[in-house]
């Protein structure tokens, strides 16, 4: 128990006064000293070590009154009140006021049923304020996230440009895009087109025609495996960087992505690097005059499965 | 300490005003409670980083708001308006460079502050909640850096963001949704810029202010931890108050950081690359320097493949953050002296050295790209 | 509490130098910033090094010019660098005085002798001037050797297969660890020398008689100026003047970097490698020559056949060959 303010103080031999102040150690947050009134002879600061027992109204010291009187006088200037400083966890640690300070408890609040009802009802109404707008907000934020696909054919050049077989040739083209409210813009894109020998063609198609479907499952286009031209999307399936056709010192002529050094052979198969799948082939149509048309598709980067996103 | 009120007969006009406010607000008590907090063992230079972070945030907010006077967050104007700030607005280059280097300073100070708290063991009981809120604040600072980087809309900005968001896509179940939400669609574009702008100038600042307030409140509730060694007498003799002593040290720290950021703005003012295009051309995407170590880690062969990328980009960093969050609950030993906590000390050195090595490796690796 | 006998020279030197550096740093930084704004300093890429060296005096104040001139270690251009040095001298002497007096009172229980700041500064600056070039050479040599050793290690058959990212990381760890270790050892030796010098300064000092509380109060109040009004006015006034100078000196638009120290531009073009281009061309020429020979051989054979068949066909073959030659020549011209 902590000594209470205003409780009487008795030394070993006689009563010497009352507890006028209590001093606390700010680090340990324990009572370190009491200040005793000494019945008018000048307050003394008495360490708790001198205290033998503490009760609600009385503090008993083990030393004689004369010893206490011999202690140095209490210097008020060496201290500040707890209102003038910020000591953390003060209230939990200090219990020196005798008795309690009370305020009346309203009659209406005595009914627990009443309190719980209004509390729950408040929660319900708060919830119902939020609920109607949650769905519109979600749809509002999600509006541009899932777009329908554009499957139109784009003319990007002529195969006359390709002089050799099994060599990657970059075809740059411009695509008109209209994003939301932005004015229609033309963005520059590129694909790599190969005139493939039967060996490479076999590696790409593996005996089956390549079918492209939309979200509902209906077929959009089929790349016939006999057509010797293959168009690869210009974006590396690893993380979407633009890759190049390069001479590698060991692997020969390959597709090489500068970002993380994914390497693909002429058929788009992964030779080295972090690419999760081979290069993405696009729907391709060659006219009699050699004009190339493709459907510009984009696929999710970094996944093993080929998932179309644009 | 309170100033003794004037002993002359009439209170001055100023004293009357103060008394008026004090009667209604409890100003004197409030002031005492806020400022007269004893710091066990005295104020220390080691404790300044928290206040410095607050200062840097305020400077970023001020320079950021100033930049918004001229910057336009649309894909067709972002680049031009940023160039306008750099080349045409008086001292615009200086304010933009200050904002840019301020973000670097913030990350450096966040690492310093977290390290100081960790080494001093100030995350242990009863300060677990302060640590957790602090980790959330760390995440917010990283978010600030990531979202702000896109705004100039040059090649560097666009591609660092593209790669970063694609990495987030690797998270299972929610990755695709999260990536589409951030990009505002399947591919980065105007929607991305709008979203990043809102997040950078509204959502993150509001969250930061709220969490920082909570952080400071919890810190005040628990009281400063103080030094991890020292005799009782030494602690008592050197005790001083938060104000003016610690505040003095804080402000000297702030002025040093302020001058350093200005000096950096002179050494390397912000220069934009060409405007963003969907084709990176010969440009090699790279994130901000404080993400470089992750970027380099993902180049290692053990993180190749879809699962590997998820492991390196999401799982491992996530697990590390979870470890940090769990730290106050697994490390229950009340010992705070870092020299008596060998696991903690070695762990800290290893983590810092690893981040340093990977960051420098990423810089060296630039020479080896095609 | 530490006693003067039990504090090692290294700890002593570290404490004093660390606090002296940070005491003087903000003041030096303010001037450095002003000089940067005025454009009289241009730091090279190794700015970290530059800043630390210039501003980490007192040990570096004589060492750095020696390094810059003697060892050709260039950190930047501009008269501002020299000015900063000169400014560092009084700032450091003052900082040394404050820190040394504090330490003497707080930890060593000694009365600080007069002029301790100046005497310490002279001694440590000279030691720094002699020792730092040695440290520079040793660490530089170790680093270079380490780097080349690490690189050649990965050229060997055993480790050639290691992929680039891993290779860079391991190489960096290897030579980085070695260089760091050597640097730390050299620093410890240097600190130990300085520590002994500082200890030498303590030998003649009188013991301080006051209680610990009293001594702490002494060094604490040492920082409070006798005439606060004057000090604050002078400080604020100087600050205002420096700010005005800063405002007038600050360039309105982006300052152009000095010719010495341009940052390397982010490469938009891949670097042109002449050897590769030559090799490519050579290969192409060989290829085309072979093609040409084959065509000529074919032509010769066909002509021989053609003489036995209708003469009309020869005209067609002759027309084909110059066509084959023409694209071959234009290909050779391309790269």
Jot down its keywords:
heterotrimer, A: 310 residues, alpha+beta, six-stranded mixed β-sheet, four-stranded antiparallel β-sheet, 18 strands, elongated, C: 335 residues, mainly alpha, 2 domains, two-stranded antiparallel sheet, 10 helices, 72% helix, 1% strand
N-to-C order of helices and strands of chain C:
HEHHEHHHHHHH
Strand adjacency order, main sheet of chain A: 4-3-2-1-6-5
Low-confidence stretches of chain C: 260-272, 312-335
Order of helices and strands of chain A: EEEEEEHHHEEEHEEEEEEEEE
Biggest interface pair, residues each? A-B, 48 and 59 residues
What's the total count of β strands of chain C?
2
Low confidence ranges of chain A: none
Averaged pLDDT of chain A, please?
88
- Tell me the Rg of chain A in angstroms: 43 Å
Number of strands of chain A: 18
User: Helical element count of chain A?
Assistant: 4
- Report the average pLDDT across residues of chain C: 77
Numbering strands along the chain, what is their spatial order in the largest sheet of chain C? 1-2
- Helix segment tally of chain C: 10
Oligomeric form? heterotrimer
Helix content of chain C: over 70%
Q: What's the layout of helices and strands?
A:
The complex is a heterotrimer of chains A (310), B (370) and C (335).
Chain A lengths: L7 E3 L4 E10 L6 E6 L7 E4 L3 E4 L3 E4 L3 H6 L19 H4 L18 H31 L10 E6 L9 E10 L7 E11 L2 H8 L4 E4 L5 E5 L5 E5 L10 E5 L3 E5 L6 E2 L5 E3 L11 E3 L4 E5 L15
Chain B lengths: L12 H13 L1 H9 L2 E2 L9 H20 L9 H10 L4 H28 L8 H23 L4 H14 L6 H9 L6 H33 L9 H7 L1 E2 H26 L24 H6 L7 H26 L11 H24 L5
Antiparallel strand pairs in B: 1-2
Helix pairs in contact in B: 1-2, 3-5, 3-11, 4-5, 5-6, 5-11, 6-7, 6-9, 6-13
Chain C lengths: L8 H30 L3 E2 L3 H9 L7 H8 L5 E2 L1 H28 L9 H38 L10 H40 L8 H10 L6 H22 L24 H35 L3 H22 L2
Antiparallel strand pairs in C: 1-2
Q: Would you write up a description of this structure?
A:
The complex is a heterotrimer of chains A (310), B (370) and C (335). By secondary structure, chain A is α+β, with helices and mostly antiparallel strands. Helix content of chain A is 16%, strand content 31%. Chain A contains four helices and 18 strands. Chain A has helices at residues 65-70, 90-93, 112-142, 198-205, and strands spanning 8-10, 15-24, 31-36, 44-47, 51-54, 58-61, 153-158, 168-177, 185-195, 210-213, 219-223, 229-233, 244-248, 252-256, 263-264, 270-272, 284-286, 291-295. In chain A, the strands form five sheets. In chain A, strands 4-3-2-1-6-5 form a six-stranded mixed beta sheet. Chain A has a four-stranded antiparallel beta sheet with strand order 13-14-15-16, with no helix packed on it. In chain A, strands 7-18-17 form a three-stranded antiparallel beta sheet, with no helix packed on it. By secondary structure, chain B is an all-alpha fold. Chain B is built from 14 helices and two strands. Chain B has helices at residues 13-25, 27-35, 49-68, 78-87, 92-119, 128-150, 155-168, 175-183, 190-222, 232-238, 242-267, 292-297, 305-330, 342-365, and strands spanning 38-39, 240-241. Chain B has a two-stranded antiparallel ribbon with strand order 1-2. The N and C termini of chain B lie far apart (67 Å). The model of chain B has no long low-confidence stretch (mean pLDDT 88). Chain C is mostly helical and 335 residues long. Chain C folds into two domains: 3-261, no CATH class; 276-332. In chain C, 72% of the residues lie in helices and 1% in strands. In chain C, strands 1-2 form a two-stranded antiparallel sheet. In chain C, helix 4 (79-106) crosses helix 5 (116-153), helix 4 (79-106) runs antiparallel to helix 7 and helix 9 (274-308) packs antiparallel against helix 10. The longest helix of chain C has 40 residues, at 164-203. The radius of gyration of chain C is 35 Å and the shape is elongated. The termini of chain C are far apart. The chains are: A alpha+beta (310), B mainly alpha (370), C mainly alpha (335). At the A-B interface, strand 9 of A face helix 2, helix 7, helix 8, helix 9 and helix 10 of B.
